[in-house]
Design goal:
Keywords: ATP-binding, Membrane, Nucleotide-binding, Transmembrane, Transmembrane helix. By secondary structure, the protein is an alpha/beta fold. The protein is built from 19 helices and ten strands. It is 61% helix and 9% strand. α2 packs antiparallel against α3 and α6 runs parallel beside α9. Bound molecules: adenosine-5'-triphosphate (ATP).
Length: 598
């Protein structure tokens, strides 16, 4: 068994107790479908009621009432046929509506979760791994499906049988019911005690499942790195550890369930046998008829069966309660960044960008400022290059400008309006981003470029590709623009991916371009092609570029030199070289054209 303490998931501040009442979190999702619930409820009551009448019919058969005349016998069995029809119809109706309700509600929950997660800012994703989110969207919702789609209705049916059965037991024989009543606490108390332990172990089990998905998801997305570093054995080991941890915790749950099933079943049936024994004496002495005893026994078996089934369903309800709580947790999570209740419209026309006294620390690194007292104005149409050593805060400028985080101090404006006063989706339309790592979706080249503007025509997509010097290599692909590029664009070279990303940004046709240049050196030809694409992109737009190439910096109207989160110099290439400061050093050592800078 794995060392559970080493990688035990779920060791966070969340409370461990999982109460079935957590299922209340599902109410908002169930409310719109009240109608379906009502129909299912009626069918449920009907079938439970009819099944409760059956033992009485059996008593009459055993005791021979109404069997004297043939037509009465026929009527009797005709009625039994009708009952069978009602039972079958009621059960089918209940199944249909309950299952449909479950599927509908779970589809709604999945969508609500995904919608929520898609809108969260990066700091939220820092505490939640992709695999874990996926596990919640799939595994946890499946648990809820089983509850709404069956367990609740099964539980209700058994509950009705239990209550109705008890009443009818009393009507059949007060004395024997009294005896049964003595047995019931003996069954219920162990259910409560074991149920509590089961609950804790269920949550733990679900946490293990989520941790397993998270590990596997990460390893799969980096499978080449894992193989290149011959880390397969260790990665397999880590996954095995999580999986075995999950198995061990499942085993504890299964053992508990087994013990619980034994205790409950034995006590229930032992009780029935005991009561039956006394009843048999009563029949012998003529205190009750054989039919009454049979009726009583059937009710008692129904009641015991209902109790046993309830204890099983209870476990499922608890598992689902844990799942619900986790989902409600995500749905209720407050993001650090949020849109204003009523967003100010983004100004039309040329947009000036302003940073005024911006200081920012990443939430995960509260001690080190990533930006400190940054003030900078970028005029419309200007090309500004951000340069500086690794970790200087260049990418952080981009992050804040797109409002993935809010500054701790200071203001960031677009067109003179504080970003926090506008809706993020509105002002982000003014930006076209070319990230350092060009992300390629598992779709065709055409779809990948059209991602920049989903309503673009084929001609517009091709024009953008031409401007980005991507048209020629795309048409040379086996199916041209319709060639699937494979997961993360495995079909393309680094330079080609960049040009697809640039074409995407050109197509977006936004007034402000944010270009994070790739640090990796390209061969001379790709370099020229990418440079040409960037030039096309910069035409008539504001360009803010995290620059790693001398060619780019030399073309810039202004160069902003950053170091340890601060702006240390601003100027043109020649001026900065003449100052012989950090920039001159960087220019000599860091820019990737290979040419001497000064
Ligand atoms: N998500 C994050 N959480 C915590 N700290 C971060 C995060 N991203 C960046 N940092 C830290 O903030 C500082 C600035 O990082 P940033 O990515 O802006 O640097 P950069 O100048 O773009 O570097 P590079 O040229 O290497 O990309 C660094 O010290 C970095 O370690």
């Amino acid at each position: 068994m794995a060392d559970a303490t080493a990688v035990k998931p779920g060791d966070d501040e969340r409370p461990k107790s999982r109460k079935v009442s957590a299922l209340r979190g599902l109410t908002p999702f169930l409310a719109p479908y009240r109608g379906m619930g009502v129909v299912a409820g009626i069918a449920l009551v009907l079938t439970a009621g009819v099944s409760l009448l059956l033992p009485m019919a059996v008593r009459r058969v055993v005791d021979g009432f109404g069997m004297e005349r043939a037509e009465m016998l026929d009527q009797y069995f005709g009625a039994a046929m009708a009952v069978a029809l009602i039972l079958a119809l009621g059960s089918a109706t209940r199944y249909y509506f309950v299952t449909r309700l479950g599927e509908r509600v779970v589809a709604d929950i999945r969508r609500a979760l995904f919608d929520k997660v898609m809108g969260m800012s990066p700091s939220w994703f820092e505490k939640m791994m992709t695999g874990e989110i996926l596990s919640r969207i799939t595994t946890d919702t499946t648990l809820i499906l089983s509850v709404i789609g069956s367990s609740v209705s099964v539980a209700l049916r058994h509950l009705l049988t239990l209550i109705g059965g008890m009443v009818l037991l009393m009507l059949t024989s007060i004395k024997l019911t009294g005896l049964v009543a003595l047995v019931v606490p003996g069954v219920v108390i162990p259910i409560i005690i074991l149920g509590r332990r089961l609950r804790a172990s269920s949550r733990e089990n679900q946490d293990w499942m989520a941790a397993g998905s998270a590990k596997a998801g990460e390893a799969l997305s980096a499978v080449q790195i894992v193989q290149a570093f011959t880390h397969e054995a260790a990665t397999r080991g880590e996954f095995a550890e999580v999986t075995e941890g999950g198995f061990a915790s499942a085993l504890r749950r299964v053992q508990l369930r087994a013990v619980m099933t034994f205790v409950v079943m034995f006590l229930a049936f032992a009780g029935v046998v005991g009561v039956l024994w006394i009843g048999a004496h009563d029949v012998r002495e003529g205190v009750m008829t054989a039919g009454e005893l049979v009726q009583f026994v059937i009710y008692a078996v129904m009641v015991a069966g209902a109790l046993g089934a309830l204890s099983e369903v209870w476990g499922e309800l608890q598992r689902a309660a844990g799942a619900t709580e986790r989902l409600v947790e995500i749905l209720g999570d407050q993001d650090r960044v949020s849109d204003p209740a009523r967003g100010v419209a983004v100004p039309d026309g040329p947009l000036e960008i302003g940073f005024q006294g911006v200081t920012f620390r990443y939430p995960t690194r509260p001690d080190t400022p990533a930006l400190e007292e940054v003030s900078l104005t970028i005029h419309p149409g200007e090309t500004v290059a951000l340069v500086g050593p690794s970790g200087a805060g260049k990418s952080t400028i981009f992050q804040l400008l797109q409002r993935f985080h809010d500054p701790d101090r200071g203001v960031i404006t677009l067109g003179g309006v504080d970003l926090r006063a506008m809706n993020r989706a509105e002002f982000r339309r003014k930006f076209a981003l070319v990230p350092q790592e060009s992300f390629i979706f598992a779709a065709s080249a055409f779809e990948n470029i059209r991602f920049g503007r989903p309503d673009a025509t084929r001609a517009e997509v091709e024009a953008a590709a031409r401007a980005a010097a991507a048209h020629d290599f795309i048409t040379a692909l086996p199916q041209g623009y319709d060639t699937p590029l494979g997961e993360r664009g495995v079909m393309l070279s680094g330079g080609q991916k960049q040009r697809v990303a640039i074409a995407r940004a050109i197509l977006r046709d936004a007034p402000v371009l944010l270009l994070d240049e790739a640090t990796s050196a390209l061969d001379a030809e790709s370099e020229r092609a990418v440079q040409q694409a960037v030039d096309a992109l910069a035409q008539g737009r504001t360009l803010l570029v995290v620059a790693h190439r001398l060619a780019t910096v030399k073309r810039a109207d202004r160069i902003v030199v950053m170091d340890q989160g601060r702006i240390v110099a601003i100027g043109r290439h020649e001026e900065l070289v003449a100052q012989n400061g950090l920039y001159a050093r960087l220019a000599r050592l860091q820019f990737t054209d290979g040419t001497e800078a000064v």
